[in-house]
Amino acid sequence: MITDIISLVLVLAGSFFVLAAALGTIRFRDTMARVHAVAKPQTIGLVLVLLGAFIRVVGSPEFSVAQRSDLGLLLLLGLFALATAPVTAQRITRVARREGLYDRDENMSRNDRPAGKTMRRR
């Protein structure tokens, strides 16, 4: 019973983070903010959901040797997401900066503006 409650709390918290990532994608205008809104909460949300599923599987009364492969798959899913999400976000933002996919100038602060054409490498 207690494992069900812990599992439910983790899955709901993870779902909230994934929903926040989806809303951030819709709400933000420029590429950099959208990538940041997707990469961080989506990864945390996925890890929380996987942790909730892990606790649910381990805490079930029918847990046996057959479910150990399920735990291995959950672990591999989490590790793969943690390894690939930051790299993907970094690559997307690097291409966006290189291609000049920014917001309008009046919406950017001084630090967000791209470097002048003499500063950029080609």
From TrEMBL:
The keyword Secreted does not apply. Coiled coil: none annotated. Belongs to the CPA3 antiporters (TC 2.A.63) subunit G family. It comes from the Bacteria. It holds the Pfam family PhaG_MnhG_YufB. PANTHER family: ANTIPORTER SUBUNIT MNHG2-RELATED (PTHR34703:SF1). Residues 103-122 are annotated as: Disordered. The chain crosses the membrane at residues 6-26, 38-59, 71-89. One of its GO terms (molecular function) is sodium:proton antiporter activity. It comes from Corynebacterium phoceense. This is Cation:proton antiporter. Keywords: Membrane, Transmembrane, Transmembrane helix. Residues 103-115 have a biased composition (Basic and acidic residues).
